[in-house]
Amino acid sequence: MKNALLLLLAIVAGLVLPIQAGLNARMAKQIGHPIFATTVSFFVGTVALIAYSIAARLPTDQLKNYTQATWAEWIPGILGAFYVAATVILVPKLGAALTFALIIAGQMVISVILDHYGLIGLPMKELSAGRVIGIVLLIAGVILVRKF
Asked: What pTM value is reported for the model?
């Protein structure tokens, strides 16, 4: 049952990304610049996370552990900002389907590399013929989405 909930969470996370990108693109149009729209998105997200942390009564003493983080552990904030800004720029130009087809293809390519070599602390999972075929099919899907 726990696995089913995790799978459902992953699907829901995937469902909300195009919605987020579309609404962020509308904000960019309203404000006049995609980077400012990204900033607003991160600000609202930060406020929401703080509110959740307070409501859930998360232990704040754990926050002191950030001082022990390596420089690499700070990079996800930059990557997240890049991702959101990229979707704000791309969705109005390419459409949601093509933008996210390309994003998913890129995610799968880097994911199998990270898994295969066990990079950034991930468990190793060797590249297999099935995974390669899956990536090829994703790329074929991108081509079909772009063409039609």
From this structure: 0.85
